[in-house]
Design a protein that fits this description.
Layout: H1 29-37, E1 61-62, H2 65-70, H3 76-91, E2 95-98, H4 99-123, H5 139-144, H6 148-178, H7 184-192, E3 198-199, H8 205-219
Parallel strand pairs: 1-2, 2-3
């Protein structure tokens, strides 16, 4: 009987599958990443798993660009409530805005104002008013049924209300043109984010990317799906 060649029946683990399922008896490289999280291995058995409510009063809060811009899409009441919350955090010196977020906010905020201005400009274009009763086909029938006068009356009301709406919109557009960062949100931010509230990160994009990966490594739950070996580990971002 001819012996099978090594190529025909590989004895070792194939390259496929080694990424998600390591050979038994080996130590995962990820386990070494947990040493940073638990320098003292014994401390892993004394974790405090209570709700994080208590820690909420002492944690630092970092606002990214999306958080800074979120207030512009909220109601005025919600925006002012958020500013009040930011103010309390600032008093406790627990509010920080990264420098790159502040710069991006300054650029994108102008786009927000421009979008509003463009939206208003579309509202002040000449409107398509309803037809006069005399412009309908079969005018005699419209007049004979007694609706012509009422249609014309409503058309005049619509025209008057449209003119008033457009006047108000143009007034608002004029105020937007005169803005120089003095809307109530920008003014509040200017007062809140003084001194050390804005901090530049001493890191490059590569550094930040590596840090995100590191944090993902040390926080991913040590479990995998039992349904299929090739599935992504549970907890993967």
């Amino acid at each position: 009987m001819q012996k099978s060649s090594p190529e025909a029946s590989p004895s070792g683990p194939t390259e496929e599958g080694t990424e998600d399922h390591e050979a038994e008896g080996t130590t995962s490289a990820r386990s070494f990443a947990y040493e940073e999280r638990f320098p003292d291995a014994q401390s892993a058995f004394g974790l405090d798993l209570s709700p994080p409510d208590a820690a909420a009063s002492s944690t630092l809060v970092f606002l990214d660009t999306s958080a800074l811009l979120l207030l512009y899409d909220a109601t005025e009441a919600a925006a002012r409530a958020a500013l009040d919350a930011f103010g309390r955090l600032r008093e406790d010196t627990r509010l920080i805005v990264p420098g790159h977020a502040a710069r991006e906010y300054a650029v994108v905020r102008s786009h927000k104002i421009t979008d509003l201005y463009d939206d208003l400009s579309r509202q002040v274009r000449p409107p398509a008013l309803p037809k006069r009763a005399g412009a309908f086909s079969n005018r005699a029938l419209v007049e004979s049924l007694g609706h012509a006068d009422r249609l014309n009356e409503l058309r005049q009301q619509i025209a008057a209300l449209t003119e008033a709406y457009q006047h108000e919109a143009r007034t608002l557009m004029g105020e937007l043109e005169a803005w120089a960062g003095d809307d109530f949100i920008s003014e509040a931010y200017s007062a809140l984010f003084e001194g050390e509230a804005v901090q530049d990160l001493d890191a490059t994009v590569r550094d930040v990317t590596a840090e995100v990966q590191r944090r993902d490594d040390i926080s991913r739950p040590p479990a995998t799906s039992t349904a299929a070996r090739t599935r992504t580990p549970l907890g993967t971002c």
